[in-house]
Amino acid sequence: MIGIFIFAAFLQAVAHGCRPLYTPFFGWKSCSPNDKDIGSVCTFECNDTHYLRGSKERQCTQNHEWSGAPTECILKPECILPLHYLFEDKIQAECSAHRIVKLTEVCSFSCNEIFQLIGPNQLTCQLNGLLTDEKRGRQTYPSCHSVRNPCKNSSCPQLCRFVSGRAQCFCAEGFALTENGRTCSDIDECSIKNGGCDGVCHNTVGNFTCSCDEGYVPSEVDRYSCVDVDECKENNGGCVDICENFQGGYQCLCSEGYHVHPDGKSCIVLQCPPLLPPEHGDVYPPSCKDGTIQVKEKCIFTCLQGFRIAGQEVFTCNNNLKWDVKNDTQCLPETDAFIVCPEDITVELMPNETSAEIFLVAPKSNIEPILVRPDWISLDRVNFFPAKETKVMFYVEDSYNKAECNISVFVIDKEPPFPRLPRDPLRDRIRLAGAPSWTGRNRLQSTMWELPPL
Ligand SMILES: *[C@@H]1O[C@H](CO)[C@@H](O)[C@H](O)[C@H]1NC(C)=O
Ligand SMILES: *[C@@H]1O[C@H](CO)[C@@H](O)[C@H](O)[C@H]1NC(C)=O
Ligand SMILES: *[C@@H]1O[C@H](CO)[C@@H](O)[C@H](O)[C@H]1NC(C)=O
Ligand SMILES: *[C@@H]1O[C@H](CO)[C@@H](O)[C@H](O)[C@H]1NC(C)=O
Ligand SMILES: *[C@@H]1O[C@H](CO)[C@@H](O)[C@H](O)[C@H]1NC(C)=O
Ligand SMILES: *[C@@H]1O[C@H](CO)[C@@H](O)[C@H](O)[C@H]1NC(C)=O
């Protein structure tokens, strides 16, 4: 009786529409307007971990049946990348989550430069849990194969690099590829800023070296620098006395009174060479003849009895260790005629004077008498000299000899020429030109005195 009743209810439900659908495990169902009337539509969804099998949408039809196929939420499969891809150098695999790939997710593959990828460059995780090449629908894993390296048979002169599938020539350090790209030529590093060398730069094939100028040695800091050698450090630079170092060299010096020998190392006393007296002569001090006279010391030539000296008498030892020879020195026999003039005379006129009265002393001579020109001049008395230069010649003469010498007498008038008064003899003054000394070296004295009243 109860069974019949249930059956009747079932028939009634069927008569009204379709049997309600179950909500799938791990999914949702939503129906409208409800889940059993004819014309109702139910849609299904699965949560993330599952995928939907069957129909996503079903409708209750006139014949009281749902359209489509029963709906299920099935656990999504996981595809796993074969382990060896993780340890392969040649090939790189990039998957969404390391090795484990979810449904519809992708793994991409690529090869290192010099290898070529054989097979698909992408695999997709499929429902069957296999990574599959979607284009071909096959499960084929890619691999990397070495390709012919274009550098292997390149015409590169030195080095070849495999860059984006092509051979690219380049040269070793120190070389440059020529324009045609077929040869590598040496770079002359020295032509640019001397290669950075402090001293001398030497270009070599593919490189260069630096060396140092004399007096310098290579620094330990780098291959370019040079440092000064302190030559004095070792054996005093070979100097006998003082050694002085400077950048790039050194020099020997000597203590005071000594001079560096031409060998540049030893020291010699500053002495002039022996000074030999003229014939019939001698030299004072006698050490002059030994070459032991030092710088600034003097030697004097003298003549033997019966001879007189002519030319230079005093010699000084110069700093250059040479005698200051200005002239030839001779000892001439006393019998030869000679005459030694006083020096030129210069006097100034007193105011109102028109001429100067000058007393001329006879020059020294070994012959008498001493004659004078012009004729109006007399020796050993006062002469009137006009206000100008008067040339006076003294001369001696005998049957064998002749000698002469000249002086000038300058009378300077500082006054304007006019007016002038007649002379007042009482107030006249006489100037006396003193006698010359024997050597003729002393300056002549010009003395003045008042004449006694007439
Ligand atoms: C998936 O569905 C199951 C069962 O309904 C539930 O326990 C789980 O939390 C759901 N997961 C997600 C991510 O919604
Ligand atoms: C290298 O190149 C030469 C001529 O360009 C060719 O004859 C030879 O077969 C090549 N060798 C390889 C290994 O490609
Ligand atoms: C050039 O010479 C220097 C010094 O000997 C060396 O350090 C450097 O490596 C060389 N360079 C090349 C390109 O050979
Ligand atoms: C040197 O002698 C010449 C002729 O012998 C003479 O003219 C000259 O004045 C003399 N020089 C000195 C400085 O004595
Ligand atoms: C020079 O002459 C002037 C004019 O007669 C006179 O005044 C003066 O005293 C004279 N001077 C001397 C130094 O005789
Ligand atoms: C002196 O002067 C006279 C005439 O001016 C001249 O001929 C002569 O050569 C001079 N003598 C000397 C030694 O200068």
Automatic annotation (TrEMBL):
Pfam families, sorted: cEGF (PF12662), FXa_inhibition (PF14670), Sushi (PF00084)
Superkingdom classification of source: Eukaryota
Keywords: Disulfide bond, EGF-like domain, Glycoprotein, Repeat, Secreted, Signal, Sushi
PROSITE patterns: ASX_HYDROXYL (PS00010), EGF_2 (PS01186), EGF_CA (PS01187), SUSHI (PS50923)
Sushi domain sequence ranges: 16-75, 270-333
Signal peptide start-end: 1-17
Cysteine disulfide partners in this protein: 46-73
GO molecular function, one term: calcium ion binding
Location of the protein in the cell: Secreted
Cellular-component GO terms for this entry: extracellular region
Full protein name: Sushi domain-containing protein
Originating species: Caerostris extrusa
